[in-house]
Amino acid sequence: MGKGTIGLNPFFSDRSIMSRPAVAGLLATITAFTDAKGFVLDKYHWMLYFLVTAMYPRFLITLDEELNSKPVTVRVGQAVDVVGQAGKPRTISGFQTHQTPVR
Question: Is the pLDDT of residue 10 over 80?
Answer without folding.
Answer: yes
